Amino acid sequence: VAEAVGLDEAFVEPPRLVRYSRPGDTFEPHVDWVVDATDSQLGLLGQRVATVLVYLNSVPRHVGGETHFPRLGLSVTPSAGSALLWPNVAASGMP
Questions:
Q1: Is 1 helix (H, G, I), strand (E, B) or coil?
Q2: Where are the beta strands (DSSP E) in 1-95?
């Protein structure tokens, strides 16, 4: 992952694993960058510059489980072994 986004491994967060096993399980809508400029983590860890989402399982289309990007009008159906990579900041380093 570090190589894919051009960062030293020291700047990559540990993976977060999420398993959806019950109908209705969800990961609430959110952004992947530090929103509050006064957040102490921003000074300590810096801004989260990119996100990589790796799918470990496939999900049939139209049964739920998609990753939604509402501002882009895009939904991605999980496919085992595939990954999404997106930047969280502009070239300036700002979200």
A1: coil
A2: 50-54, 67-69, 74-76, 83-87
Cβ distance 28 to 73 under 8 Å? no
Tens of pLDDT, residue by residue over 14-48, are 888 988 888 888 888 888 888 888 888 788 778 88
The structure tokens 């739920």 sit at 64
Contacts of 10 (CB under 8 A, 6+ apart): none
Single-letter amino acid, residue 29: P
User: Looking at the DSSP assignment, which residues form a beta bridge with residue 52?
Assistant: 85
**Dist. CA 10–CA 26, nearest whole Å:** 30
18 neighbors 27 (Cβ within 8 angstroms): yes
CB 52 within 8 A of CB 87: no
The span from the CA of 95 to the CA of 62, in Å, is: 32
Q: What is the pTM of this model?
A: 0.80
